[in-house]
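If your schedule permits, I should be very grateful for your opinion on a structural question. Please examine both parts with care and let me know of anything in them that strikes you as inconsistent. The record follows directly beneath this note:
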Amino acid sequence: MSISRSMTKTIGIDRPCEEVFAFLADPANWPKWAVVNVRSIEPSDDPDWWHMSTPLGPARLGLRPNAEFGILDHDYVDDTASWRVPARVVPNGDGTEFMITFHQPPSLGDSVFKEQTDLVDTELATLKKILESGPAEVTA
């Protein structure tokens, strides 16, 4: 048994937890904030999966939201790999903390894993900007 390398990213967002969760729980919103990894997304015939266009080609996203516990775990599947990404939305005063953990797949080298997880900082900053800019942006 071995433990894979992992990286957890977190960002504070000055919006109520329910609003942050609702925005993130809708995969149609992901191209708005996951600007590095998701070019476009559309529902599939299976309501649990979405088709995505990514910089690496086509992929699928399976999101398993649970509002009661702030769970936004999701599965990512492409032609070369698949992995589960744990994510949480938790209250922090009047705002929210969004946390997302990445486990390094065995097929991904250390330098590529670091490069990819560093790019997530851009996405989290974009998410924060969108959600803190007002209700019109959140529901758009």
User: Anything to note?
Assistant: The mean pLDDT is 91. DSSP finds four helices and eight strands in the chain. Strands lie at 6-13, 40-43, 50-54, 57-66, 71-78, 82-85, 87-92, 95-103. The two ends are 45 Å apart (CA to CA).
